[in-house]
């Protein structure tokens, strides 16, 4: 089936998304080879958008050149994983404190997101990633700063984030329910800025620790 863009994305964006999703699901693990012509044939699109998608992934450090054989998926090192989590801390810990300052209406927005995420299938990596992203994005949205949301999206939509989550998903043998994972954070948002920031920082650190194993 030919690749079809969604939500106004370009073919290059769609190719990037499809390759990223394969990394998340485990269909493309570290060491896997990506050959431009083969990908173009598989996606039923021309080589140009595939080339653009691969170059974007290369710039992000997810793949590296393998000469005429195309590219190979890199295994991310601990430092790269730490870098992404550090940026998450900067954005999401600040957002949590701000939501606590804004009060009940902002906290309710996060509670609604948790309720929506509860019905998603956490046994599938793509769905589990989407559920967690929904909750964490709600915290940033509730902070009321659109530039902060842009920063969040820039972090969570990178293929790097998907590959890191794939590693986290495989290490988590028991996938806890969304509400169990995020109820302490929700309660902290209602307890005040300092407590909200502290719990969010701890929550993200737990994710980092689980990812590194």
Features:
213 residues, mainly alpha, 3 strands
Q: What structural class do you assign from the helix and strand content?
A: mainly alpha
Which value, in Å, is the CA radius of gyration? 18 Å
Number of strands: 3
| Mean model confidence by pLDDT | 88
**Helical fraction:** 55-70%
Characterize the biggest β-sheet.
3 strands, antiparallel
Shape: elongated
Number of helices: 10
Range of strand content: under 5%
End-to-end gap: 38 Å
Strand order across the biggest sheet?
Answer: 1-3-2
Q: Which stretches are low in confidence, meaning pLDDT under 50 for 5 or more residues running?
A: none
How do the helices and strands follow one another from N- to C-terminus? HEHHEEHHHHHHH
Account of the 3D structure:
The mean pLDDT is 88. With 213 residues, this protein is mainly alpha-helical. It has a three-stranded antiparallel beta sheet with strand order 1-3-2. It has ten helices and three strands.
List the helices and strands and how they pair.
Layout: H1 11-25, E1 33-34, H2 36-43, H3 47-59, E2 63-65, E3 71-73, H4 78-102, H5 104-117, H6 125-142, H7 146-156, H8 159-171, H9 178-189, H10 193-212
Antiparallel strand pairs: 1-3, 2-3
Write a compact overview of the structure shown.
The chain is mainly α.
């Amino acid at each position: 089936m030919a690749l079809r863009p969604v939500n106004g994305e370009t073919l290059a964006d769609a190719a990037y998304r499809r390759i990223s999703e394969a990394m998340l699901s485990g269909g493309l693990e570290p060491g896997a080879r990506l050959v431009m012509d083969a990908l173009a044939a598989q996606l039923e699109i021309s080589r140009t958008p595939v080339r653009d998608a691969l170059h974007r992934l290369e710039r992000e450090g997810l793949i590296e050149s393998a000469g005429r054989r195309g590219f190979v998926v890199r295994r991310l090192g601990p430092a790269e994983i730490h870098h992404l989590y550090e940026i998450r801390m900067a954005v999401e810990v600040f957002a949590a404190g701000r939501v606590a300052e804004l009060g009940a209406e902002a906290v309710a927005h996060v509670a609604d997101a948790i309720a929506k995420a509860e019905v998603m299938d956490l046994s599938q990596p793509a769905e589990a990633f989407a559920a967690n992203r929904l909750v964490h994005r709600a915290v940033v949205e509730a902070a009321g700063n659109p530039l902060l949301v842009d920063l969040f999206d820039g972090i969570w939509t990178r293929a790097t984030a998907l590959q890191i989550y794939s590693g986290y998903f495989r290490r988590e043998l028991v996938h806890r329910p969304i509400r169990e994972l995020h109820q302490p954070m929700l309660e902290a948002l209602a307890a005040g800025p300092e407590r909200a920031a502290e719990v969010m920082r701890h929550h993200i650190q737990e994710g980092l620790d689980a990812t590194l194993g």
